[in-house]
Amino acid sequence: MWILVGRKLSKQIYEAIVVMRQIAEMRKEVSQHGFDVRMMEVPGMKVAIAGDGEVNYLFMLLPFRDKFKLKKRDVWLFKKLSYKFKARPFLVTFDKMLSFYPLHALEEGGEHFELDIRNSRGLMFSFDTIVSEQLQQRLVV
After folding, report:
1. Largest Cα–Cα distance of the chain, in whole Å?
2. CA–CA distance, 31 with 130 (Å, rounded to integer)
3. Which of 3, 7, 69, 82 could form a disulfide with 58 if both were Cys (CB 3.0 to 4.6 A apart)?
């Protein structure tokens, strides 16, 4: 545990600020496309659901790192929630901008799943791209 000394913040306070900023940025970006965003209380995870009445998205918010190790039970719970809400699931990281990753970007890692940001760059989307693809699918049908 870090303590507050001068201008240095404790690690927990810093991480809380980063998560709050990530939530605010995600709400702002998703709301620009006419989606309502709500945070959900899921033990051990930061999860948000966004929808416009026709399509729903479920987001697992992750602090920015180069590599993540996610517990398999958390990923399966997240997947289960996406099925229940009929939502498309995405992992969301935030560095300078929001990055959205589909669940197939996860790699098997024994008792956990791994997300390597550097190796998964080709699978990264912006929310604009996700909405654009969804609108194209609506027009085709």
Report:
1. 59
2. 14
3. 82
